[in-house]
Amino acid sequence: MQGGTVYAVDADPSRTMAGMRRVFIIENPVASRVTSQGMQRACEALERTGCRVTTVRTGAAGNATWLAERGVAQGHEIVAVYGGDGTVMQAVAGIQGSKAVLGIIPGGTANLLANNLNIPRNPVRAAGAIATGAPRTIDLVHLSTSEGSRFCAVGAGTGYDAKMMAETSVKQKERWGVGAYIAFVLRTAHRIRPQPMTITVDGRSHRHDAASALVANCAAILPPILELGPEVTIDDGVLDVVILNARGGIGAAWTVLSLLAGRETRRVRRIRGAAVRIETEEPQPVQADGDVCGCTPLEARVMPGGLQVMTPPGDPARQPPVATSAKTKRPSSPATTEEIV
To answer: Which of 18, 96, 255, 272 has a 20 to 30 Å separation from 220 between CA atoms?
Structure first.
């Protein structure tokens, strides 16, 4: 393969790859699908392929960003997250402007970014993607709401989807996973009502009545409830604005059917662009990658090629493998673990 070293897993665990990837794993122990056993197995899988692993645990909400900055400062080629989409995006903020590549070991409720990149949910298989995969360059989204600025990679929205995220408790998500969102829809769909929104895309403003307005960076917004068509990709350099108009449960069902069929109707409108602003008459909650993050107005700007993520072997959109700091074969080292409080 041109432009980098080829890596392979040796059948004999006592032997290692040529070169050594330094992997810094940020574990969020309170994420809904994170377990100590999963962490241990992921580290062992990485070490068997010759990776040098350092692990840290988040001790407070939001500190994954500075932990990722520390991983970069220590010279790690890969900064990985064992947690949900919120922790992943915090880490992304910490590696911005560096050469570090993001790794994902899914441990949250929906794991939206991992799902869109075909990263396995199993911690050992996800670790395999980090150890033997190669980086894929994807677009990133810079988002601003009433709470300030942040990044997202899957998409953002306001309206019914954001209310669903805001009103689904952590305990419900831990117990039922994505099923908690499905239960919310079944329980509340009859209350869906459109509201006036002003949506500006690349400087052109339009008034819409919408139950939800989504700014999508990739197709699987909330699998299996909401998935857009194959024309929506994570590396096309544009954002897809999807405006959904519905009233009540039956109206919502017709809207979803139109969306899944790829039809643009009075219920489903689509606009593409690089910069989006959504305004509502009263402040409405905003969600980004499944996390509630303030209220409208919402502003989103695409960052083409803004992030590199380790993806499994066989991904046709991958780049040449990430370079390592070592040039000779070395035995694997035990994982170093720290807890940040």
So the answer is: 96
Q: Which domains does the chain have, with CATH numbers?
A: 22-132+324-339 (3.40.50.10330), 143-304 (2.60.200.40)
- The secondary structure of residue 317, as a DSSP letter, is T
322: CB partners within 8 A, 6+ apart: 4, 21, 77, 78, 101, 134, 135, 310
What pTM, to 2 d.p., does this model score? Answer: 0.83
pLDDT at 318: 58
Count of residues for the chain? 341
In this structure, how many other beta carbons lie within 10 angstroms of the beta carbon of residue 230? 8
Helix, strand, coil share (%) of the chain residues, nearest 5? 25, 35, 40
Cα of 285 vs its chain's centroid, Å: 19
User: Please, are residues 156 and 298 in contact by the beta-carbon 8 Å criterion?
Assistant: yes
Give tens-digit pLDDT for 34-93: 999 999 999 999 999 999 999 999 988 789 999 999 999 999 999 999 999 999 999 999
Mean pLDDT of 197-201: 98
